């Protein structure tokens, strides 16, 4: 799914027995049908993104120039527009798709 191969060996932990009877992560495709329709997947994705909208964006990291200005009591230098964090609500995306409310954007 994310382009990485996982080792089939499962390290021991308190839920190890839940991986029985084979105790391996790997699954063969077999004849299983994909019963996840697009409506269900979109509902799950919207729910997750709605919950993520309650998470505050990370604090900006001050570089050494900004730290020096703040130590001298000067105002902070202008931050380039390409690095500003723009908060966008999931309902106001450009393409109408649900998305994470915080994203880096070029202006």
Short description:
By secondary structure, this protein is mainly alpha-helical. The protein has helices at residues 38-52, 64-71; strands spanning 85-87, 102-104.
How many helices in DSSP terms?
2
Please summarize the sheet with the most strands. Answer: 2 strands, antiparallel
Reading the helices and strands in chain order gives HHEE
Based on helices, strands and strand pairing, what is the structural class?
A: mainly alpha
Number of strands: 2
Distance between the termini: 32 Å
**Rg (CA only):** 22 Å
General form: extended
Low-confidence stretches: 78-93
Helix content: 10-25%
Order of strands side by side in the largest beta sheet? 1-2
What would the average pLDDT be, to the nearest integer?
Answer: 67
The percent range for strand residues is 5-15%
Structural overview:
The protein has 107 residues and is mostly helical. It has a domain of 26 residues. Helices cover 21% and strands 6% of the residues. It is built from two helices and two strands, in the order ααββ. It has a two-stranded antiparallel sheet. The protein is extended and about 50 Å long. 1% of the residues are buried. About 15% of the residues have low confidence.
